[in-house]
User: Fold these one by one.
Assistant:
Number 1:
Amino acid sequence: MLRFLLGRLGLLIPTFFGVTLVAFSFIRLLPGDPLDLLAGERGIDPERKAELMAQMGFDKPLWQQYIDYVIGIFHGDLGTSFASKKPVLDEFLTLFPATAELALCAIILAVCLGIPAGIFAAVKRGTIADQAIMGTALVGYSMPIFWWGLLLIIFFSGILQWTPVSGRISLLYFFPQVTGFMLIDSLLSGEKGAFISAVRHLILPSIVLATIPLAVIARQTRSAMLEVLGEDYVRTARAKGLTPSSVIGLHALRNALIPVVTTIGLQVGVLLAGAILTETIFSWPGIGKWLVDSIARRDYFVVQGGLLLIAGIIMLVNLIVDVLYGLINPRIRHH
Amino acid sequence: MSETSPAAKADTTKLEAESRSATKAQLAEFWYYFSQNKGAVAGLVVFVLLVLMAVFAAFIAPHNPDFQYRDSFLVPPVWQEGGKAEFLLGTDAVGRDILSRLIYGAQFSLFIGVVVVTIALVGGITIGLVAGYMRGAVDTFIMRVMDIILAFPSLLLALVLVAILGPGLINAMIAIAIVLQPHFVRLTRAAVLAERSRDYVVAARVAGAGHIRLMFKTILPNCLAPLIVQATLSFSNAILDAAALGFLGMGAQPPTPEWGTMLAEAREFILRAWWVVTFPGLAILITVLAINLVGDGLRDALDPKLKRS
């Protein structure tokens, strides 16, 4: 198991350096240099510019800049935001819980609905129920989620007035952030109604963000389940007189879930890309909106840092999924 | 070339006829399995209609998509109170006919899909063939680069690439093609690895076929099935991503009647005029859904493993 883990980690190292190279190149590839972009049409005094360039290390040779950059990363230095003058890492850490809360709610929703729906469709294969579930899943999979979010806002916030249009919690409530997760913090604060308000703000964005993973998980569960249901050991389990529910729950499901776990892991990238759109629509103060705003504002150190951190998260989650996969599937572990 | 004897000529003609009828039989078999899937056929019909709509947009569209009717701002669809018969799906905030803009928008979406898939497919197949065929250091290097591209969420990478290249439809297409391409590289490489030690490849090599011929003429045709399926999926992904970029203001720029850009312009009217938001998104959904239905049908028809289950 340790060798398996080390092998996986070894594969990550070149990818990590590649990712740092991409993030590093990003600012250098932009047309014009960062200070000109920042100064905009007002321009900048050449002397002051040279001074700033030297301060930011832009006057050194490229390879030296890259080495400084990587050393900086290992010291937690990802540059400073032009707009807020705060370190990029600090901003990220402040905003990340909002995205994590949203993404977690979305993936929980997707798993809790997607797996049962997929199992049900597989067991009822060929029936109207199966076709309805798979049809819905295909629509979900094809959904432009930014439009889906707008539709939900029109219906639930506009016409029915059930849910708020944007934000994480009503402005009426003010309490200290302990965990950064609004659901937990609002409970801890003990303020009446705060938790309900946080939940109401979270519902629509979670549904929007969950849509594509939900469809993918349902489809994957169904096909994995169908494959397993045709296996000999399932037939044996049936033949020895087990009830259909224990055949499905005990024998089939455990094996069918192995590929589904991988699928769930792969959804992290989908969730983070989806967060860019979802957070923009719902003005959700997370890293997705932060990145879009920073690109619009040309706050390029933020974009650079965000790229690196998001790729880092995806790599980390994929590593965890690989390890989990090895744990639940002995065939991989001993290979 | 020396003159061929009549007997050899007859043989060649016979062989050609046989190969033609084999191709025909293959196509017939493919169509048989494809048409078993009702959804796929429906998707294909919708897709053909969309292509026709895009091609004949100038004849079908009731209005000029960019013309602003100054007396008709935010007119609701014809069936709603206040609707006008000349604007079937209503008008937008500056008085442009939404139906006409949607019809012209089909041109952009299909064009984006075709261009992106072509770039990603050609690039991906070439790189994948080289990686799988050469093996060794070249292979390792290529696959690590692909891993790096795949480490970023596609939309984020596309956004950043557009930030470098500058917003606009062409740059958005290049960015999306780069982001989608690793999937083709991986698929091609895997298929090449599976095929390269087969007897027919060895036979062709022994017969003196060069590297290029082995890669493109001998191996490639036998790896096409998964690539076709992936191409369909990428087609719909390209349309979705381009619309998302347009929506974020980094894709096609106003007043282009691209569906995502139309949605971005409509955002501020969302609670006042539902139709300016609803129809462009519906157009994206229908297009993407039709293509995905076709993709599912293709997979069923081309994948022998699923075929008879």
Number 2:
Amino acid sequence: MSNEIMSELRKDYIYNLMIKGEREDGRKFDEYREITIDTNVIEKAEGSARVKLGDTHLVVGVKIQTGTPFPDTPDQGVIITNLELIPLASPVFESGPPREDAIELARVVDRGIRESESIDLSKLCITPGEKVWMVFIDVHVLDDGGNIMDAASLGAIAALMTAKLPAQRFDVGEDTPVPMRDVPVAVTAVEIGGTIMLDPSLNEQSIAGTKLTVISNQDGGLSGMQKSGVLPLTTEQINYIVDISIEKAKELREKFLEI
Amino acid sequence: MVKPEKLIENGIRLDGRKPDEIRPIKIKVGVLNRADGSCYFEFGGNKVIAAVYGPREVHPRHMQKSNSAVVRYRYNMASFSVEDRKRPGPDRRSIEVSKVSREALEPVIFQEYFPRSAIDIFVEVLQADAGTRTAGINAASIALADAGIPMKSLVSACAVGKVDDTLVLDLNKDEDNYGQADMPIAMTPDGNITLLQMDGHLTREEFKEGLEMAKNGCLMIAQMQRAALLEKYSSLMEGEVNE
């Protein structure tokens, strides 16, 4: 993503707007682009969501099947998150195994869901030590318009909230919803020339030296954080981002995830 | 290993440390002959070794940048470094650790001095005991200086976490496994944060307090890094004067 080609003129233009307190698309610094989330868009998946965040477009599919638990957690289900930046979504994405950008995105989405304990893993146990539910969260990015992180995280939680454990199909009882306890929301900020802004567009993301993603829960607590990019941040900047991210996450959660 | 009933008793952690204390550190500068710079770093039970090669030619060629050096960082865990043998080679975790560690060091390197060249940093974890990425960054920072790479400052890294509802500096293995949060950070001595990750549960207030604790930890480590470099290079300088 960092090797996105952008003309120096456009960089200058965006930078100068920033100094005047404006953004390319007229948004406020803490304003998100338009978000639409549609759930159950893939009937074959146990849960799914299509997210549009401005120009960014992705589909999250949740597949659930039975499997054997890990030896160190015999009474807990398994969550596996994967995200691929396929060449369909951007001229700079290449085919082949996921690279560090994709791996980082997937691992941060995963961390948000896992560390917030949003899924009650103990309720995913069918027979301790033998059979548990395995939840595969796959993020398919279709169009990269910037800030895939927040779109993927919204999509993952939206898909999980509508997902069902296919118990009938696996002959282990009645279908039930995935046991959810919390709704983590990721909010990503970038810093450009000393200004902090949320939900970076593709151009803003290309100019910014550093992104900070803050994942917060329903109670306003933090469950994950990731700084990504080569420029440092000061403590003041980080504390400011944490504060506005928690507020923004609350807003996104109420508006788009109907909590 | 089962979860200990208490990880902190009467304000003292299982390994005898106070909450704001870091584990013992041992540093050796210039331990490898072939590398341009190297460092052996012990951080509690962690034993890591960092080597720096470069600036040197970039292979593959298409990776080179016309206006600056490329910095590459490979974090690798030895198969014998952990309890259950780790399958050798990069996995998703080590690719992510490599990425964030590289980004933790890049801000201090004067990359623009070496266009079309590569600065390669290799970190091998010989023994892991929670906090390997921070140990790796601490070692790599010294190895870069040892290689004579122009830098704005050193980078120091340290984690803060939460166990038994108490914020503690520099988690050990049990605290990492059974604790409630883990937040590794790296920073320059003037307070610029170059790495920040967090997982677990922290309130906004705990986060702010934790960040300050981790910064103090980094400052303590920075002094030791500096001392280790001075130890090697001040003796060399004295030698020259005597001649």
